[in-house]
Write a structure and sequence with these properties.
Oligomer: single chain
CATH topology of the domain at 12-179: Jelly Rolls
Shape: globular
Strand content: 25-35%
Number of strands: 33
Helix content: 25-40%
CATH class of the domain at 12-179: Mainly Beta
Distance between the termini: 52 Å
Number of helices: 15
Radius of gyration: 27 Å
Length: about 700
């Protein structure tokens, strides 16, 4: 039987990195001799890696992890290995600081090549390594969530190699617990428009230069040369590759720009090939729409643009160390002439199998299909809120994604690992990190409360009780930490401090940051905490653990007190804050109904307050609570179905290919709204769980 795990490999790092190891790239190479037979590469690297064998791309993508549980991949490289001499080459990326997508750790790599149980090569002091100085460490953030963007200069010298050193890094290695993302073949985009540009702010960051450049559109026959002038013009369809272009004689523009369309939203890796006769700078921007008549490369502090300095001759920029997402690519080439061989991406998709649709109506099927596409673009190493702007794991967001995935894919392993990853981030204050395994400065206490429900739902849908057993101690710490915050009023007192964000949804009055005064109480949080207690009690029952009854009673007491404090008898609905003059939010009503906090005699009135449409409606993400609260009464099926068709149908009619973060689309958050957000796939769960068409 083939042995598991590493046999001879050691954690190593380059001997002489230059300066601070932050936003840096490092190369490793080692020769090995192989024979016929299956060959595997075992590898782990902090923060990320790309591997090639004999110059051919093998794979990339380190799963974000913790020093206490380091994930390694086992890659099948049989098709890349030839009998005789071979060379393995690795590029390692080190972020060197905290983002929502990861946390700092000792920078190092460990790898081993095996063939039918025999170790052919392994990482050690003998491995040649060095800093890749063609990658320019500019420390320009894509966003505070995703990490840094990339700048590369192909004209700089090759890496200088020397022997490696052993890294002072603990070994807590474990195999990847979920599937590897599948990376597709190079995919070319279609040319939409082209022309000349003038860089108005040459000293600004790359994305600002692209966003503010003066653009002058040209006809294809004015800029492109030869047969490629057609490219779906004049009735002739040609592949938009090998685009030879040249600026007009005497033109004073800085260069030529091109906008490409992938045809749909994709997540993957930029892949550009071009030819030039001289060194030129190339900017590559990406985005989800063209509402600015260009890619929105710069959004406040966010920078959706890579930089590449091409050398004379053929160039390829395949950046496999930072995944992007979007539909459109924009390229600015600072030169007078050249050839674009291809502009596109290589898609990165987590393997899932869609289950049959439970709906037959045409619009409902459309909603289901787009919902699945949205979910799939938000699954890679873990669930992501969105693949474009953040790529981060949140518990509240992932609850929707998990429930939808249970029905759309019967996917349980991915959910299990996300829940385990979240619990590993448990803090001394009894709260989970906001974006595990990353480290961020803010925390949302309600997201920790909902985690207890996520574990219960996983157990119910998967029939796997082992996760509950593994997580039980952590769950106990969570609920006890929450219970300790119930004060003399009988209510849950909100956390005080600038780092605590009392967020429930993107609606006025539902996201308060930095409470410093004691005595902050909100009805939604009472419901979230009571629900955590109730779910913990159910977990205790299933696992035959003692102690659940205490929390069952705490849930009843808390909801009873919340009803007394927040219920407005005249309105027949709940206030969000004790000092509100009247009920304001649908979500508050939904949470009290969902958690069983509304006395039976008042339930009809509270549901009617939602259906009347006079309160601030729940946002896309939190409609899951509103719809389930309404569907406690089966008579409301038609109402819920009509609301889904109205809200999600409007996005589809507006051209959505994936569902948006909020109904305002890209205009929200001052032009930073995501057009693909996993939490907006709610209808998949509601359709499947409640059989709305039946």
């Amino acid at each position: 039987m083939k042995p598991l795990g590493f046999q001879r490999a050691k954690w190593i790092f380059v001997k002489s990195p230059l300066g601070e190891v932050r936003d840096k790239y490092f190369d490793y190479k080692i020769p090995f001799v192989a024979r016929e037979g299956k060959a595997e590469l075992l590898i782990s690297a902090h923060s990320n890696y790309c591997a090639t064998v004999n110059g051919i791309f093998a794979d990339c993508g380190q799963m974000p992890d913790y020093e206490t549980r380091q994930i390694y991949d086992t890659l099948d490289i049989t098709d890349l290995v030839q009998p005789g001499e071979n060379v393995l080459e690795l590029t390692q990326y080190v972020a060197g600081r905290s983002f929502s997508t990861g946390r700092p750790a000792v920078p190092a790599v460990i790898f081993e090549i095996r063939q039918e149980g025999t170790v052919l090569a392994y990482s050690g002091e003998h491995t040649l390594s060095g800093e890749n100085r063609r990658y320019l460490s500019l420390k320009e953030e894509i966003s505070g969530q995703c990490g840094y963007n990339c700048a590369y200069d192909g004209n700089l010298p090759d890496t200088v190699f020397e022997e490696s050193v052993l890294a002072d890094k603990p070994s807590n290695l474990t195999p990847r617990p979920v599937h590897k993302v599948r990376i597709g073949a190079p995919m070319a985009a279609e040319l939409l428009t082209q022309g000349l540009f003038v860089d108005r702010e040459p000293n600004q960051v790359k994305s600002q230069r692209m966003q503010t450049a003066f653009l002058s559109t040209m006809l294809r026959q004015e800029l492109l040369q030869g047969k490629q002038q057609a490219c779906r013009w004049g009735g002739e369809t040609l592949p938009c590759t090998d685009l030879a272009w040249q600026l007009p004689e005497g033109c004073s523009a800085d260069g030529a720009y091109f906008v490409f369309d992938l045809g749909n939203e994709y997540a993957g890796f930029v892949d550009v090939e071009l030819e030039t006769q001289e060194p030129v700078e190339v900017l590559i921007g990406y985005g989800e729409h063209l509402q600015d008549l260009r890619v929105r490369a710069k959004v406040h502090s966010r920078n959706f643009c890579f930089g590449y300095k091409a050398k004379p001759g053929k160039n390829r920029f395949f950046h496999s160390l930072q995944r992007i997402a979007g539909r459109y690519l924009q390229v600015h080439i600072y030169g007078k002439a050249g050839v674009i061989n291809r502009v596109g991406i290589r898609s990165a998709d987590y393997p899932v199998t869609r289950q049959p649709m439970p709906v037959t109506d045409g619009l409902d099927q459309w909603i289901w299909e787009v919902g699945c596409r949205t979910l799939e673009l938000c699954m890679h190493e873990h669930y992501e809120d969105c693949p474009w702007r953040e790529q981060a794991l949140y518990t509240m967001d992932s609850r929707v994604q998990m429930l939808c995935g249970y029905y759309a894919y019967k996917e349980y392993a991915f959910a299990r690992e996300a829940l385990r990853t979240a619990l590993e981030s448990l803090r001394p204050d009894g709260l989970l990190e906001l974006c595990p395994p990353g480290l961020v400065s803010l925390n949302i206490p309600s997201y920790t409360a909902v985690y207890v429900r996520q574990v219960l739902e996983y157990m119910q849908y998967s029939d796997d009780l082992t996760l509950g057993q593994e997580c039980f101690e952590g769950l106990t710490r969570i609920v006890e930490g929450l219970r300790q915050r119930i004060d003399e009023t009988g209510l849950f007192a909100g956390h005080q401090g600038h780092e605590y964000w009392h967020f429930y949804e993107w609606r006025p009055g539902m996201h308060t940051l930095g409470i410093t005064e004691p005595g902050f109480y909100e009805a939604p949080m009472q419901a979230f905490v009571a629900d955590a207690f109730s779910c913990y009690d159910q977990i205790c029952t299933v696992l035959k653990k003692p102690g659940g009854a205490v929390y069952a009673q705490a849930a009843k007491d808390l909801l009873c007190k919340a009803h007394q404090v927040f219920f407005d008898p005249q309105a027949g609905a709940y206030k969000t804050h004790p000092k509100d003059e009247a009920p304001v939010h649908e979500l508050t009503q939904a949470m009290m109904l969902f958690t069983g906090g509304v006395p039976e005699e008042e339930q009809a009135r509270v549901r009617q307050s939602i259906m009347d449409g006079k309160l601030i409606p729940t946002s896309l993400s939190m409609t899951i609570y509103t719809y389930e609260a309404l569907l406690q009464d089966a008579e409301n099926k038609a109402f819920v179905l009509e609301k889904i068709r109205q809200v999600w149908g409007e996005m589809l009619r507006a051209g959505a290919q994936t569902f948006w973060e909020t109904e305002d689309g890209h205009w929200d958050f001052d032009r930073a709204g995501s057009l693909c957000h996993g939490w907006s796939a709610v209808p998949i769960y509601i359709f499947a769980r409640y059989g709305l068409e039946n």
